[in-house]
Amino acid sequence: MSEETMTAGTAEDRAQRKTRTGVVVSDKMEKTVTVLLERRLAHPKYGKQVTRSKKVKVRNDHDAKAGDTVRIMETRKLAKTVHWRTLDVIERAR
């Protein structure tokens, strides 16, 4: 085995992956939840703050429900549309 293959799954490698924080908007699937990711950026011409959002499918390992705020991490492809997994639930919905 090469050195590159041996270090592929180390903690340092996982630290390089993208992590995001979002809100669970749907938990109707068995092992998957839908998370809404929002980001704010300045409009290129006018400078006004604009909100952009995207929904991603996330493997639910921490029993997150709709309305929960969760931290997610990018991972290998787990299903046709699932590329993220939950790290932890930051805040539970009321």
Provide a descriptive summary of the structure in words.
With about 90 residues, the chain is mainly beta. The chain has helices spanning about 5, 10-15; strands at about 20-25, 30-40, 50-60, 70-75, 80-90. A 5-stranded mixed β-barrel has the order 1-2-3-5-4. Strand 1 and strand 2 (about 30-40) form a beta hairpin. The longest helix has 5 residues, at about 10-15. It is globular, with a radius of gyration of 16 Å.
Short description:
With 94 residues, this protein is mainly β. The chain has two helices and five strands; from the N terminus they run ααβββββ. It has a five-stranded mixed β-barrel.
Strand order of the largest sheet: 1-2-3-5-4
Number of strands: 5
Question: If you average the pLDDT, what whole number results?
Answer: 89
What's the story with the biggest beta sheet? 5 strands, mixed, barrel
Cα distance spanning the termini: 50 Å
Structural class: mainly beta
Helix percentage: under 10%
Can you tell me the overall shape? globular
N-to-C order of helices and strands: HHEEEEE
Helix count, per DSSP?
2
**Rg computed from alpha carbons, rounded to a whole number of angstroms:** 16 Å
Uncertain residue segments: none
Beta-strand percentage range: over 45%
